[in-house]
Design a protein that fits this description.
Blueprint: E1 7-8, E2 30-34, H1 41-53, E3 58-64, H2 68-74, E4 79-83, H3 96-105, E5 108-111, H4 119-131, E6 136-138, H5 141-148, E7 160-162, H6 166-173, H7 177-182, H8 184-195, E8 198-201, E9 207-209, E10 213-216, H9 229-242, H10 247-269, H11 276-294
Helix pairs in contact: 1-2, 1-9, 1-11, 4-5, 5-6, 9-10, 9-11, 10-11
Length: 296
């Protein structure tokens, strides 16, 4: 499997610029997160809280209508929109026009946390993937939707960052988890280059690549092997994109901060008891520590 054009990237991680005295919430981007089916509202709530903590100026969560009061109750600092849903409380294809109107106002989009996989949510994920003109993150069931139509992976109107774990990456590539774990760098970089996307292949030392460069994340711990931590990563990454970071740099920094917040949480709480919301709570300290280490 050829990877001769991939450069191992050990360059310093980016740091967000200091905030200008005369800035306002609009200066730091408007993030739209799409997901939140009935029974999985926590996923979109975690993503929304992480997106706020990672610095997005405005965060809006688009969820199934019956889920809106629950999601709104998690955090007063983000906005919520309830959209058309099916009988099981999952986003309906009838929501697509309103979703596209919301997306037009956003500077970055994240799709997937708690989305649920149906024919209608597949239609939504594919439409946003193809048409949204700015940078967007696709995770969780949005990735599984894309895996149903792999011929469309190269058809996107703007920068795309995909954040699969090995199982999701297997569905995208048709490979087994064992095959993926045996050739993570090669498979991730070839996939990124083929489809002109950035990939964060999650796991121990998550692999971040745009097909030309590849970096291995060195933060994180086994306590993060718990439900919801991927949703936190989606929120962090969407916020960094909303603030204007280039997708590959945003992916590197998001993976680092995500793992660092997990390390800080584990140092205080231990690995066994770690839960995803602990990452959100420790994310401010992770930003401070990253800036200290970077000399910012």
């Amino acid at each position: 499997m050829a990877t001769t054009h991939v450069i191992r990237d050990d360059s310093p991680l980016p740091v967000l610029p200091r905030r200008a005295v005369e800035s306002n919430k609009g200066t730091y981007g408007r993030a739209l997160l799409v997901g939140g089916a009935r029974g999985m509202t926590g996923a979109i709530g975690l993503a929304g809280m992480a997106c706020l903590r990672a610095g997005a100026g405005l965060v809006e969560l688009a969820v199934a209508r019956s889920c809106q009061p629950i999601v709104a109750g998690y955090e007063p600092s983000y906005m919520t929109v309830g959209l058309a849903e099916d009988a099981e409380g999952r986003l309906s294809a009838a929501a697509l026009d309103e979703l596209c109107a919301l997306a037009d106002k956003a500077t970055a989009l994240g799709c997937g946390p708690g989305l649920a996989l149906t024919d209608e949510t597949t239609t939504i994920a594919l439409a946003l993937y193809a048409s949204y003109a700015r940078a967007a993150v696709f995770d969780a069931d949005a990735l599984n939707a894309l895996a149903r139509h792999p011929e469309q992976l190269s058809q996107h109107a703007g920068p795309r960052v995909l954040t699969p774990h090995p199982g999701e990456f297997g569905r995208l590539t048709g490979k087994t988890v064992a095959e993926i774990q045996g050739a993570r760098i090669e498979l991730a970089s070839n996939f990124a280059r083929q489809h002109n996307v950035v990939v964060i292949l999650k796991g121990h030392q998550s692999c971040i690549t745009d097909g030309r460069r590849i970096a291995l994340n060195t933060t994180g711990n086994p306590g993060m092997a718990t439900g919801g931590t991927g949703d936190v990563l989606t929120g962090i990454l969407t916020a960094l994109l909303a603030q204007g970071l280039e997708p590959y740099d945003a992916a590197r920094l998001a993976a680092h901060l995500h793992g660092l917040s997990g390390d800080l949480a584990a140092a205080e709480l231990g690995e066994t008891s770690l839960i995803a919301s602990d990452l959100v709570r420790h994310l401010p300290a992770a930003f401070v520590e990253h800036e200290r280490r970077s000399g910012a």
